[in-house]
Amino acid sequence: MHHIVENQRNFFNTNTTKNLQFRLTQLDKLYSVLKNNEQALYDAIYKDFKKSEFDTYTSELALIFHDIKDAKRNIYKWARRKKVRTNLMNFPGKSYIIKEPLGVCLVIGAWNYPYQLSLSPVVAALAAGNTVILKPSELPAHSSKVMATLINKTFDPKILKVVEGGVPETTELLEQDFDKIFFTGSTRVGRIVYEAAAKNLTPVTLELGGKSPAFITKDCNLKITVKRLVWAKFLNAGQTCIAPDYVFVEKAIEQNFMEAIKAEIEKEQFAFENNNYVQIINDKNFERLEKMIVPDKVAYGGSTNAPERYIQPTILHKVTFNDPSMQEEIFGPILPVLSYTTLQEAIERSRQLPKPLSAYIFTGSKKNREEVLQQLSFGGGAVNDAVMHISNPKLPFGGVGHSGIGSYHGKAGFDGFSHKKSILHRATWLELPLKYFPHSASKLKWIKRLMKLQ
């Protein structure tokens, strides 16, 4: 690991990556190797947890391709020196900010979207002019292997290298001195990464998770609300960091909501053979999720099949904060439904939990919308939709508090892998004597006057 990092550092120090055309070449190379090997990517991820070609393209590859195109289209603008105003105290002069790459970066991907959550940060890092070591999650072993095979045979390891492995390999990587670490995963592991980074004062972006709520008010468009909510929750069998984790529905429409959501799930016919559902990633997660299904709280679903790692889309009703499903992030196809009388009550109860990565409000009322957006702290979210905010590269994506540090996507990703170097450029044709010795009451008086004009 040390040898890989040092080779990348030596290459970075040649300043080759600061050339924008060089960066564009690397982005083109990444796009081509993924585009030319789409079928291999589809086959690998299906072997891991039966993810269909449709879902793999729409929720993974399409987003990566868009990130690459977005970076190529905007790289000159994002990298441009930014002029800023120079204050009177520094007259005559000019001021500007230079964006420069951080250096050697480590990207640790997540298992639930093994391509998108590994390669989108890589796109941002390469666009910003860094070298990158990618450590994909070992849980989807076939997906990890295909990324390693394709990338390592295409890229010079001094620029981009995939390192496979589990905890021992990740631990050894974290012992190295990086210029940036980008991690996507659980809050528990995020703490370990953060602690390791702190030893070298390495900046981090942590994309974590949390219990993301969805609030549903009586004045929502119930038909559209349920349609969008069911899609967002059961996409990837609920194994999505920004999936609605639980629902707060207004009591006035509680019964109508329950009937509508059951009907929508029936209509969608989630199943492996319909190519719109996936397996739980492994036995450990299957067993964890199965324990959350309390039989007397099941309003819909609840069936499981351990050998197939299948859990039927499940709705839990009349749930309390003491139930197993409310004790941790679910990360599976189980949706607890709670009710409320006033929206303020629901917001206050949600605030008892750590700040989530996302939150959603389904309402036709501006007052209700603003109540949630202003009072609840969360990473990002949507009004009258769920999950789809991740598809807009103009919106920085990231958490707050326990749900993460920093953000990426589009320009935010480029900035996250860049250092903003501030420069004051002074002219030499004029020099006021005010700051120099000897000090005097008169000089101080003039300095105070000038400060008031700033």
From TrEMBL:
Active site, per annotation: 207, 241
Any GO BP annotation: aldehyde metabolic process
Family statement drawn from the similarity comment of this UniProt entry: Belongs to the aldehyde dehydrogenase family.
Lineage, broadest ranks: Bacteria, Pseudomonadati, Bacteroidota, Flavobacteriia, Flavobacteriales
GO MF term list: aldehyde dehydrogenase (NAD+) activity
SUPFAM superfamilies named among the record's database cross-references: ALDH-like
InterPro entries linked to this entry: Ald_DH/histidinol_DH, Ald_DH_C, Ald_DH_CS_CYS, Ald_DH_CS_GLU, Ald_DH_N, Aldehyde_DH_dom, Aldehyde_DH_NAD(P)
Protein's name according to its UniProt entry: Aldehyde dehydrogenase
